[in-house]
Amino acid sequence: MEGENETLLKHSSTSLLECVAKKGCIRKRKADFNKNELKNFLKEFAGKEIPGVDCFICFVASYGKVYNDKEIYLYDRENKKKFQLEALWILFVGENFLVGKPKIFIFVTFPHVKKRLEDMKKLMKKYAPCVVAEDTDNIHIASTLPEHADILEVNIDLKEPNQLKAIVENLCNILNNKSPGDLLNQLTRMNSDLVENHEFYSLADKHFASFSVKSSLTKT
């Protein structure tokens, strides 16, 4: 990240760390990773038992882009390569760490290359919407199940970097139990708040973002 984006991200990540610190959580923050460095960092947790830990939360902010009208990728700026979100959470599949307990991956992607509005429409129309706002053409949220259990992938693709503040405020409210109900319902309400109060989707002026959740919190 560079300039204002970097400052915004540092402030937001600090807010999240302060929030989880108040809950007594073990926390680590790293910045400026390329793909391999990020994977190696996560492997420290994937193959390690930490007593008293019953949930793993990973928050990743990166440049991202929709490719081939299919899905959003993270972007390794150092090596100038894209990679799938799955490349990170797949590290925890089959490992003994937190078996049967939630591993939550929250990806916030910033626009690296300007996306066409029609590209995003084609992407999101592949999924059934869970929440509908009047000006979204029924395309703004996807809810599907991944192949493996006990993984929750939340992907929030921003149109404007300053939308990150509202994202972090909502996540902190969830962590502080200010939003009632199970996690998926909380995320649904989070999406509604972004639509109604933070202009997260505005097709009229071609400001379009996406909020997708892939989840299965059972079995392994």
UniProtKB/TrEMBL annotation:
GO molecular function terms listed in the Swiss-Prot or TrEMBL record: cysteine-type endopeptidase activity
Single Gene Ontology BP annotation: proteolysis
Peptidase C14 caspase domain residues: 22-196
Protein name as catalogued: Peptidase C14 caspase domain-containing protein
